[in-house]
Amino acid sequence: MEDPAVLIPTSVAEAIESFGAGGDIAIIGGGTILVPEIRLGHARPSRALMLHGAGLAGISREGTRTTIGAMTPLSALSSLGEPIAAAVSNIADLEIRGQGTVGGNLCAQNTDAPRGDLQGVLIALGATVRSVGAGGERSEPAETFLPGRADRLVLDVSFDAPAAGAYAYLDRAHTHEYTALAVTAVRTADGTIRLGANGAGPHGLRLPSAEAAAADPSAAGVAALADVQLFDDAIASAWYREKTLPVLVRRALEQLKETA
Amino acid sequence: MNITINGTSRIVNAGPLTPLLHVLREELDVLSPKAGCQQGGCGTCTVLVNGEPRRSCLLPIAAVEGAEVRTVEGLASGGKLTPVQEAWIHHYAAQCGFCTSGFLMAATAYLEKGGSDDHAEIAAALGGHVCRCTGYVKIYDAVAAAARGESFDLATTAAGSRTTIRGVEL
Ligand SMILES: Cc1cc2nc3c(=O)[nH]c(=O)nc-3n(C[C@H](O)[C@H](O)[C@H](O)COP(=O)(O)OP(=O)(O)OC[C@H]3O[C@@H](n4cnc5c(N)ncnc54)[C@H](O)[C@@H]3O)c2cc1C
Ligand code: FES
Ligand code: FES
Fold this sequence. Notes:
The complex is a heterodimer. Chain A is an alpha+beta fold. Chain A has helices spanning about 10-20, 35-40, 85-90, 95-100, 100-105, 120-125, 140-145, 210, 215-225, 240-260; strands spanning about 5, 25-30, 45-50, 60, 65-70, 130-135, 140, 150-160, 165-170, 180-185, 195-200, 205. Chain A has a domain at about 165-260: 2-Layer Sandwich (Enolase-like, domain 1). The radius of gyration of chain A is 18 Å and the shape is globular. Chain B is an alpha+beta fold. The termini of chain B are far apart. Chain B has helices spanning about 20-25, 85-90, 100-110, 120-125, 135-145, and strands at about 1-5, 10, 45-50, 50-55, 70, 165, 170. A 5-stranded mixed β-sheet of chain B has the order 2-1-5-3-4, covered by helices on one side. Chain B has a two-stranded antiparallel ribbon with strand order 6-7. In chain B, strand 6 and strand 7 form a beta hairpin. The model of chain B has no long low-confidence stretch (mean pLDDT about 95). The radius of gyration of chain B is 16 Å and the shape is globular. The chains are: A alpha+beta, B alpha+beta. The interface of A and B includes residues 3, 8, 32 and 176 of A. The site of one FE2/S2 (inorganic) cluster has 12 residues of chain B, from loops.
Protein backbone atom coordinates (compact mmCIF):
# COMPACT_ATOMS: atom_id res chain seq x y z
CA MET A 1 0.00 0.00 0.00
CA GLU A 2 1.23 3.47 -0.93
CA ASP A 3 1.43 5.65 2.21
CA PRO A 4 -0.69 8.80 2.02
CA ALA A 5 1.10 12.13 2.00
CA VAL A 6 0.56 13.55 5.49
CA LEU A 7 -0.22 17.22 6.15
CA ILE A 8 0.07 18.51 9.73
CA PRO A 9 -1.17 22.12 9.88
CA THR A 10 -0.22 24.21 12.92
CA SER A 11 -3.03 26.78 12.71
CA VAL A 12 -6.69 26.93 11.74
CA ALA A 13 -5.85 29.04 8.67
CA GLU A 14 -3.28 26.50 7.54
CA ALA A 15 -5.75 23.63 8.07
CA ILE A 16 -8.36 25.40 5.94
CA GLU A 17 -5.82 26.07 3.21
CA SER A 18 -4.51 22.48 3.25
CA PHE A 19 -8.04 21.09 2.99
CA GLY A 20 -9.02 23.40 0.14
CA ALA A 21 -12.04 21.95 -1.63
CA GLY A 22 -11.47 18.50 -0.14
CA GLY A 23 -11.41 15.59 -2.56
CA ASP A 24 -9.07 12.66 -2.00
CA ILE A 25 -7.96 13.76 1.45
CA ALA A 26 -8.71 12.03 4.74
CA ILE A 27 -9.20 14.25 7.78
CA ILE A 28 -7.77 12.64 10.91
CA GLY A 29 -9.34 13.97 14.10
CA GLY A 30 -8.67 11.67 17.03
CA GLY A 31 -8.19 8.82 14.58
CA THR A 32 -10.17 6.27 16.61
CA ILE A 33 -12.11 5.24 13.51
CA LEU A 34 -9.77 6.18 10.70
CA VAL A 35 -6.40 4.94 11.94
CA PRO A 36 -7.35 1.22 11.90
CA GLU A 37 -9.16 1.70 8.58
CA ILE A 38 -6.05 3.13 6.95
CA ARG A 39 -3.79 0.53 8.56
CA LEU A 40 -6.01 -2.30 7.30
CA GLY A 41 -6.27 -0.76 3.83
CA HIS A 42 -10.04 -0.22 4.06
CA ALA A 43 -9.42 3.48 3.49
CA ARG A 44 -6.73 4.39 0.97
CA PRO A 45 -6.58 8.18 0.76
CA SER A 46 -3.74 9.74 -1.21
CA ARG A 47 -3.44 12.54 1.36
CA ALA A 48 -4.14 12.69 5.09
CA LEU A 49 -4.78 15.90 7.04
CA MET A 50 -3.94 15.51 10.74
CA LEU A 51 -5.67 18.13 12.87
CA HIS A 52 -4.11 17.54 16.29
CA GLY A 53 -1.91 20.65 16.11
CA ALA A 54 -4.30 22.93 14.22
CA GLY A 55 -5.74 24.75 17.22
CA LEU A 56 -9.29 23.48 16.75
CA ALA A 57 -9.78 22.12 20.29
CA GLY A 58 -11.58 23.91 23.08
CA ILE A 59 -14.94 24.96 24.48
CA SER A 60 -15.93 28.60 24.77
CA ARG A 61 -19.03 30.31 26.14
CA GLU A 62 -20.53 33.65 25.25
CA GLY A 63 -23.73 34.43 27.08
CA THR A 64 -26.00 31.42 26.62
CA ARG A 65 -24.09 30.22 23.52
CA THR A 66 -21.57 27.37 23.78
CA THR A 67 -19.07 26.71 20.98
CA ILE A 68 -17.14 23.43 20.79
CA GLY A 69 -14.08 23.20 18.54
CA ALA A 70 -14.03 20.20 16.20
CA MET A 71 -10.90 18.72 17.84
CA THR A 72 -12.29 18.88 21.38
CA PRO A 73 -12.05 15.40 22.89
CA LEU A 74 -15.36 13.80 23.88
CA SER A 75 -14.16 13.57 27.50
CA ALA A 76 -14.22 17.40 27.73
CA LEU A 77 -17.97 17.45 27.07
CA SER A 78 -19.12 15.77 30.25
CA SER A 79 -19.30 19.16 32.02
CA LEU A 80 -21.75 20.60 29.47
CA GLY A 81 -24.97 19.44 31.16
CA GLU A 82 -27.85 17.43 29.71
CA PRO A 83 -28.46 16.00 27.22
CA ILE A 84 -24.78 16.06 26.12
CA ALA A 85 -23.37 14.74 29.39
CA ALA A 86 -25.56 11.62 29.40
CA ALA A 87 -24.86 10.90 25.73
CA VAL A 88 -21.10 11.35 26.05
CA SER A 89 -20.73 9.20 29.16
CA ASN A 90 -22.39 6.40 27.17
CA ILE A 91 -19.88 6.56 24.29
CA ALA A 92 -17.22 3.84 24.30
CA ASP A 93 -14.87 4.03 27.30
CA LEU A 94 -12.56 6.40 29.15
CA GLU A 95 -9.62 6.00 26.77
CA ILE A 96 -11.63 6.34 23.54
CA ARG A 97 -13.45 9.39 24.94
CA GLY A 98 -10.07 10.95 25.68
CA GLN A 99 -8.94 10.53 22.08
CA GLY A 100 -12.11 10.65 19.93
CA THR A 101 -13.25 14.15 18.93
CA VAL A 102 -16.52 15.99 18.37
CA GLY A 103 -15.69 16.57 14.68
CA GLY A 104 -14.95 12.86 14.22
CA ASN A 105 -18.20 11.92 15.93
CA LEU A 106 -20.22 14.28 13.74
CA CYS A 107 -18.56 12.88 10.62
CA ALA A 108 -18.48 9.21 11.70
CA GLN A 109 -20.05 7.05 9.00
CA ASN A 110 -22.78 4.61 9.92
CA THR A 111 -21.55 1.99 7.49
CA ASP A 112 -20.89 -1.05 9.70
CA ALA A 113 -22.18 0.19 13.05
CA PRO A 114 -24.36 3.07 14.30
CA ARG A 115 -21.52 5.42 15.26
CA GLY A 116 -21.69 9.13 15.87
CA ASP A 117 -23.86 9.26 18.98
CA LEU A 118 -23.63 13.04 19.23
CA GLN A 119 -25.35 13.59 15.88
CA GLY A 120 -28.91 13.15 17.15
CA VAL A 121 -28.05 15.08 20.31
CA LEU A 122 -26.74 18.09 18.37
CA ILE A 123 -29.80 17.99 16.10
CA ALA A 124 -32.09 18.08 19.13
CA LEU A 125 -30.10 20.99 20.56
CA GLY A 126 -30.58 22.90 17.31
CA ALA A 127 -26.80 23.15 16.99
CA THR A 128 -25.09 25.03 14.17
CA VAL A 129 -22.16 23.39 12.38
CA ARG A 130 -19.49 25.65 10.91
CA SER A 131 -17.49 24.02 8.14
CA VAL A 132 -15.28 24.86 5.17
CA GLY A 133 -14.75 23.23 1.78
CA ALA A 134 -15.73 23.94 -1.82
CA GLY A 135 -17.57 27.27 -1.88
CA GLY A 136 -15.94 28.44 1.34
CA GLU A 137 -17.26 28.67 4.88
CA ARG A 138 -20.79 27.58 5.73
CA SER A 139 -22.80 27.66 8.96
CA GLU A 140 -25.91 25.50 8.97
CA PRO A 141 -28.12 23.44 11.29
CA ALA A 142 -26.72 19.99 12.15
CA GLU A 143 -29.63 18.25 10.40
CA THR A 144 -28.81 20.04 7.13
CA PHE A 145 -25.06 19.55 7.52
CA LEU A 146 -25.19 15.77 8.07
CA PRO A 147 -26.57 14.59 4.71
CA GLY A 148 -24.10 16.82 2.82
CA ARG A 149 -21.08 16.41 5.07
CA ALA A 150 -18.80 14.70 2.55
CA ASP A 151 -15.92 16.98 1.59
CA ARG A 152 -16.43 19.39 4.47
CA LEU A 153 -13.90 20.25 7.17
CA VAL A 154 -15.77 20.93 10.41
CA LEU A 155 -14.39 23.86 12.42
CA ASP A 156 -16.83 23.96 15.32
CA VAL A 157 -20.39 23.40 16.52
CA SER A 158 -22.39 25.82 18.67
CA PHE A 159 -25.74 25.85 20.44
CA ASP A 160 -27.82 27.87 22.89
CA ALA A 161 -28.20 26.42 26.36
CA PRO A 162 -31.47 24.43 26.44
CA ALA A 163 -34.01 24.76 29.23
CA ALA A 164 -33.86 20.97 29.68
CA GLY A 165 -32.54 17.88 27.92
CA ALA A 166 -33.07 14.12 28.14
CA TYR A 167 -31.36 11.14 26.53
CA ALA A 168 -32.97 7.69 26.22
CA TYR A 169 -30.98 4.83 24.69
CA LEU A 170 -30.79 1.09 24.28
CA ASP A 171 -28.24 -0.13 26.79
CA ARG A 172 -25.20 -2.05 25.63
CA ALA A 173 -23.83 -5.39 26.67
CA HIS A 174 -20.30 -4.01 26.92
CA THR A 175 -18.63 -0.60 26.65
CA HIS A 176 -17.50 -1.57 23.17
CA GLU A 177 -20.89 -2.36 21.75
CA TYR A 178 -22.33 0.52 19.80
CA THR A 179 -25.61 2.12 20.81
CA ALA A 180 -28.18 0.58 18.46
CA LEU A 181 -30.72 3.35 18.95
CA ALA A 182 -30.99 6.54 21.02
CA VAL A 183 -33.39 9.47 21.24
CA THR A 184 -32.63 12.95 22.54
CA ALA A 185 -35.37 15.34 23.67
CA VAL A 186 -34.68 19.02 24.27
CA ARG A 187 -36.83 21.86 25.54
CA THR A 188 -35.32 25.06 24.17
CA ALA A 189 -35.22 28.33 26.08
CA ASP A 190 -38.44 29.44 24.33
CA GLY A 191 -40.26 26.22 25.27
CA THR A 192 -40.09 24.43 21.89
CA ILE A 193 -39.63 20.66 22.04
CA ARG A 194 -37.03 19.21 19.63
CA LEU A 195 -36.28 15.52 19.10
CA GLY A 196 -33.28 13.82 17.47
CA ALA A 197 -32.57 10.12 16.90
CA ASN A 198 -29.43 8.09 16.37
CA GLY A 199 -29.25 4.62 14.85
CA ALA A 200 -32.47 5.26 12.90
CA GLY A 201 -31.00 6.27 9.55
CA PRO A 202 -27.77 6.86 7.65
CA HIS A 203 -26.87 9.58 10.20
CA GLY A 204 -28.57 11.34 13.08
CA LEU A 205 -32.12 12.43 12.15
CA ARG A 206 -34.60 15.00 13.43
CA LEU A 207 -38.07 13.66 14.32
CA PRO A 208 -40.48 16.40 13.15
CA SER A 209 -43.65 14.26 13.24
CA ALA A 210 -42.89 13.21 16.79
CA GLU A 211 -42.16 16.82 17.76
CA ALA A 212 -45.62 17.82 16.48
CA ALA A 213 -47.20 15.19 18.75
CA ALA A 214 -44.87 15.80 21.71
CA ALA A 215 -47.65 16.74 24.13
CA ASP A 216 -48.61 13.05 24.19
CA PRO A 217 -45.38 11.02 24.60
CA SER A 218 -46.94 7.70 23.52
CA ALA A 219 -48.49 9.18 20.38
CA ALA A 220 -45.21 10.96 19.63
CA GLY A 221 -43.41 7.61 19.83
CA VAL A 222 -45.65 6.10 17.16
CA ALA A 223 -45.47 9.26 15.03
CA ALA A 224 -41.65 9.06 15.05
CA LEU A 225 -41.79 6.00 12.78
CA ALA A 226 -42.73 8.30 9.89
CA ASP A 227 -39.48 10.27 10.28
CA VAL A 228 -36.86 7.51 10.16
CA GLN A 229 -35.16 5.10 7.75
CA LEU A 230 -34.75 1.97 9.85
CA PHE A 231 -32.12 -0.57 8.83
CA ASP A 232 -30.68 -3.97 9.74
CA ASP A 233 -27.12 -4.19 10.97
CA ALA A 234 -25.01 -6.55 13.02
CA ILE A 235 -26.33 -5.31 16.35
CA ALA A 236 -30.05 -4.79 15.71
CA SER A 237 -32.61 -5.53 13.02
CA ALA A 238 -34.94 -2.95 11.47
CA TRP A 239 -37.80 -4.87 13.13
CA TYR A 240 -36.25 -4.43 16.57
CA ARG A 241 -35.58 -0.76 15.92
CA GLU A 242 -39.22 -0.31 14.86
CA LYS A 243 -40.41 -1.86 18.12
CA THR A 244 -38.05 0.15 20.35
CA LEU A 245 -38.03 3.61 18.72
CA PRO A 246 -41.52 4.52 20.03
CA VAL A 247 -40.50 3.40 23.52
CA LEU A 248 -37.35 5.54 23.51
CA VAL A 249 -39.23 8.60 22.20
CA ARG A 250 -41.79 8.18 24.97
CA ARG A 251 -39.11 7.73 27.63
CA ALA A 252 -37.13 10.76 26.47
CA LEU A 253 -40.25 12.95 26.52
CA GLU A 254 -41.33 11.66 29.93
CA GLN A 255 -37.84 12.27 31.28
CA LEU A 256 -37.99 15.80 29.86
CA LYS A 257 -41.33 16.42 31.61
CA GLU A 258 -39.83 15.36 34.92
CA THR A 259 -37.20 18.07 34.60
CA ALA A 260 -39.92 20.72 34.08
CA MET B 1 10.68 12.60 15.20
CA ASN B 2 11.22 12.33 18.96
CA ILE B 3 9.21 10.77 21.76
CA THR B 4 10.15 10.12 25.35
CA ILE B 5 9.59 6.54 26.47
CA ASN B 6 9.81 5.91 30.20
CA GLY B 7 12.03 8.95 30.66
CA THR B 8 14.40 8.25 27.77
CA SER B 9 14.20 10.31 24.60
CA ARG B 10 14.02 8.10 21.51
CA ILE B 11 14.21 8.91 17.83
CA VAL B 12 11.49 7.35 15.68
CA ASN B 13 11.80 6.69 11.95
CA ALA B 14 8.35 5.23 11.24
CA GLY B 15 5.94 7.13 8.99
CA PRO B 16 3.63 9.69 10.67
CA LEU B 17 0.49 7.54 10.52
CA THR B 18 2.12 4.45 12.06
CA PRO B 19 0.26 3.57 15.27
CA LEU B 20 2.30 4.16 18.43
CA LEU B 21 1.80 0.46 19.28
CA HIS B 22 3.81 -0.62 16.25
CA VAL B 23 6.52 1.94 16.87
CA LEU B 24 6.87 0.68 20.44
CA ARG B 25 6.88 -3.01 19.65
CA GLU B 26 8.57 -3.18 16.26
CA GLU B 27 10.92 -0.22 16.20
CA LEU B 28 11.79 0.43 19.84
CA ASP B 29 11.54 -3.11 21.27
CA VAL B 30 9.15 -2.02 24.03
CA LEU B 31 7.08 -5.17 24.27
CA SER B 32 4.72 -4.74 27.22
CA PRO B 33 1.92 -3.12 25.17
CA LYS B 34 0.28 -6.04 23.39
CA ALA B 35 -1.20 -6.09 19.91
CA GLY B 36 -4.68 -7.49 20.56
CA CYS B 37 -7.61 -6.39 18.42
CA GLN B 38 -5.64 -3.43 16.99
CA GLN B 39 -8.85 -1.49 16.54
CA GLY B 40 -9.46 0.02 19.93
CA GLY B 41 -11.72 -2.65 21.37
CA CYS B 42 -9.68 -4.60 23.91
CA GLY B 43 -7.40 -2.24 25.82
CA THR B 44 -4.29 -4.40 25.99
CA CYS B 45 -2.21 -1.86 24.03
CA THR B 46 -2.94 0.91 26.57
CA VAL B 47 -0.01 3.15 27.54
CA LEU B 48 0.14 6.51 29.30
CA VAL B 49 0.62 9.57 27.10
CA ASN B 50 1.42 12.60 29.23
CA GLY B 51 -0.19 10.74 32.13
CA GLU B 52 -3.44 9.88 30.32
CA PRO B 53 -4.32 6.30 29.35
CA ARG B 54 -4.47 5.92 25.58
CA ARG B 55 -4.97 3.08 23.09
CA SER B 56 -1.58 2.94 21.38
CA CYS B 57 -3.09 0.97 18.46
CA LEU B 58 -5.24 4.00 17.55
CA LEU B 59 -2.67 6.76 18.02
CA PRO B 60 -0.73 7.85 14.95
CA ILE B 61 2.84 8.49 16.00
CA ALA B 62 2.80 12.05 14.61
CA ALA B 63 0.03 12.94 17.09
CA VAL B 64 2.30 12.13 20.04
CA GLU B 65 5.48 13.79 18.84
CA GLY B 66 7.32 15.20 21.85
CA ALA B 67 5.01 13.43 24.31
CA GLU B 68 6.01 11.46 27.42
CA VAL B 69 4.95 7.85 26.98
CA ARG B 70 4.95 5.41 29.89
CA THR B 71 4.63 1.64 29.66
CA VAL B 72 4.88 -1.23 32.14
CA GLU B 73 8.67 -1.25 31.57
CA GLY B 74 8.78 2.13 33.31
CA LEU B 75 6.74 1.21 36.40
CA ALA B 76 9.19 -0.62 38.67
CA SER B 77 12.12 1.43 39.87
CA GLY B 78 15.22 0.47 41.80
CA GLY B 79 14.19 -3.17 41.59
CA LYS B 80 10.89 -2.41 43.35
CA LEU B 81 7.47 -3.03 41.83
CA THR B 82 4.77 -0.39 42.22
CA PRO B 83 2.03 -1.10 44.81
CA VAL B 84 -0.51 -1.91 42.10
CA GLN B 85 1.89 -4.41 40.47
CA GLU B 86 2.41 -6.05 43.87
CA ALA B 87 -1.34 -6.14 44.43
CA TRP B 88 -1.70 -7.83 41.01
CA ILE B 89 0.59 -10.66 42.08
CA HIS B 90 -0.90 -10.98 45.55
CA HIS B 91 -4.45 -11.15 44.19
CA TYR B 92 -3.61 -13.44 41.26
CA ALA B 93 -5.04 -10.80 38.93
CA ALA B 94 -3.12 -12.17 35.95
CA GLN B 95 -3.73 -15.57 34.43
CA CYS B 96 -2.50 -15.72 30.83
CA GLY B 97 -1.32 -12.13 31.26
CA PHE B 98 -2.24 -10.87 27.82
CA CYS B 99 -4.51 -8.12 29.16
CA THR B 100 -2.28 -7.27 32.13
CA SER B 101 -0.12 -4.51 30.63
CA GLY B 102 -3.12 -2.50 29.49
CA PHE B 103 -4.97 -2.96 32.79
CA LEU B 104 -1.86 -2.01 34.80
CA MET B 105 -1.38 1.24 32.89
CA ALA B 106 -5.07 2.19 33.13
CA ALA B 107 -5.00 1.32 36.86
CA THR B 108 -1.79 3.33 37.32
CA ALA B 109 -3.42 6.42 35.79
CA TYR B 110 -6.53 5.88 37.93
CA LEU B 111 -4.51 5.60 41.14
CA GLU B 112 -2.18 8.52 40.29
CA LYS B 113 -5.30 10.69 40.01
CA GLY B 114 -6.32 9.65 43.50
CA GLY B 115 -8.83 6.95 42.51
CA SER B 116 -10.57 5.23 45.42
CA ASP B 117 -11.41 1.60 46.13
CA ASP B 118 -15.04 2.20 45.09
CA HIS B 119 -16.15 -0.59 42.77
CA ALA B 120 -18.23 1.60 40.43
CA GLU B 121 -15.39 4.10 40.04
CA ILE B 122 -12.88 1.37 39.28
CA ALA B 123 -15.31 -0.11 36.75
CA ALA B 124 -15.70 3.28 35.05
CA ALA B 125 -11.92 3.63 34.80
CA LEU B 126 -11.23 0.09 33.57
CA GLY B 127 -14.46 -0.58 31.64
CA GLY B 128 -12.73 -0.43 28.26
CA HIS B 129 -10.45 -3.35 29.07
CA VAL B 130 -11.24 -6.94 28.23
CA CYS B 131 -9.91 -9.93 30.17
CA ARG B 132 -10.74 -13.38 28.89
CA CYS B 133 -9.36 -15.28 31.90
CA THR B 134 -9.90 -13.83 35.35
CA GLY B 135 -13.55 -12.86 35.34
CA TYR B 136 -12.38 -9.38 36.46
CA VAL B 137 -13.06 -9.96 40.17
CA LYS B 138 -9.40 -10.34 41.07
CA ILE B 139 -8.37 -7.44 38.90
CA TYR B 140 -10.83 -5.12 40.64
CA ASP B 141 -9.72 -6.52 44.02
CA ALA B 142 -6.10 -5.73 43.18
CA VAL B 143 -6.87 -2.14 42.15
CA ALA B 144 -9.03 -1.62 45.24
CA ALA B 145 -6.25 -2.99 47.48
CA ALA B 146 -3.71 -0.67 45.90
CA ALA B 147 -6.13 2.26 46.31
CA ARG B 148 -6.33 1.47 50.03
CA GLY B 149 -2.53 1.48 50.22
CA GLU B 150 -2.27 -2.17 51.24
CA SER B 151 1.14 -3.80 50.99
CA PHE B 152 2.00 -7.47 50.65
CA ASP B 153 4.75 -9.90 51.47
CA LEU B 154 5.05 -11.42 48.06
CA ALA B 155 7.34 -14.20 49.25
CA THR B 156 4.27 -15.79 50.79
CA THR B 157 2.05 -15.41 47.78
CA ALA B 158 2.57 -15.97 44.07
CA ALA B 159 4.71 -19.05 43.54
CA GLY B 160 5.73 -19.10 47.20
CA SER B 161 9.38 -18.49 46.38
CA ARG B 162 11.31 -15.54 45.04
CA THR B 163 11.79 -15.19 41.31
CA THR B 164 13.64 -12.57 39.32
CA ILE B 165 12.14 -11.28 36.09
CA ARG B 166 14.14 -8.76 34.07
CA GLY B 167 16.16 -7.80 37.13
CA VAL B 168 13.17 -7.26 39.40
CA GLU B 169 12.96 -9.60 42.38
CA LEU B 170 9.40 -10.71 43.06
C1 LIG C 1 -13.84 0.55 20.87
C2 LIG C 1 -14.60 1.68 20.28
C3 LIG C 1 -15.87 1.99 20.75
C4 LIG C 1 -16.60 3.03 20.19
N1 LIG C 1 -17.83 3.33 20.70
C5 LIG C 1 -18.53 4.37 20.18
C6 LIG C 1 -19.80 4.71 20.71
O1 LIG C 1 -20.30 4.10 21.66
N2 LIG C 1 -20.46 5.76 20.14
C7 LIG C 1 -19.94 6.49 19.11
O2 LIG C 1 -20.56 7.44 18.67
N3 LIG C 1 -18.75 6.17 18.60
C8 LIG C 1 -18.03 5.15 19.11
N4 LIG C 1 -16.80 4.84 18.58
C9 LIG C 1 -16.36 5.54 17.38
C10 LIG C 1 -15.47 6.76 17.60
O3 LIG C 1 -14.51 6.54 18.60
C11 LIG C 1 -16.22 8.03 17.95
O4 LIG C 1 -17.32 8.20 17.09
C12 LIG C 1 -15.31 9.27 17.87
O5 LIG C 1 -16.01 10.44 18.28
C13 LIG C 1 -14.73 9.51 16.50
O6 LIG C 1 -13.90 10.65 16.57
P1 LIG C 1 -12.38 10.65 16.03
O7 LIG C 1 -11.93 12.06 16.17
O8 LIG C 1 -11.56 9.63 16.68
O9 LIG C 1 -12.62 10.23 14.52
P2 LIG C 1 -11.62 9.99 13.32
O10 LIG C 1 -11.28 8.56 13.23
O11 LIG C 1 -10.49 10.97 13.39
O12 LIG C 1 -12.57 10.42 12.12
C14 LIG C 1 -13.81 9.79 11.87
C15 LIG C 1 -14.41 10.34 10.58
O13 LIG C 1 -14.66 11.73 10.71
C16 LIG C 1 -13.88 12.50 9.81
N5 LIG C 1 -13.44 13.71 10.54
C17 LIG C 1 -12.74 13.79 11.71
N6 LIG C 1 -12.62 15.07 12.11
C18 LIG C 1 -13.24 15.83 11.16
C19 LIG C 1 -13.46 17.22 10.98
N7 LIG C 1 -13.00 18.14 11.87
N8 LIG C 1 -14.14 17.66 9.89
C20 LIG C 1 -14.61 16.77 8.97
N9 LIG C 1 -14.44 15.44 9.07
C21 LIG C 1 -13.77 14.97 10.17
C22 LIG C 1 -12.76 11.60 9.38
O14 LIG C 1 -12.27 11.95 8.12
C23 LIG C 1 -13.44 10.24 9.41
O15 LIG C 1 -14.19 10.04 8.25
C24 LIG C 1 -16.04 3.80 19.13
C25 LIG C 1 -14.77 3.49 18.66
C26 LIG C 1 -14.05 2.45 19.22
C27 LIG C 1 -12.67 2.17 18.70
S1 FES D 1 -4.95 -3.66 20.58
FE1 FES D 1 -5.47 -1.62 21.02
S2 FES D 1 -7.38 -1.82 21.94
FE2 FES D 1 -6.99 -3.85 21.30
S1 FES E 1 -5.32 -12.72 32.19
FE1 FES E 1 -5.74 -13.63 30.28
S2 FES E 1 -6.84 -12.08 29.26
FE2 FES E 1 -6.67 -11.28 31.23
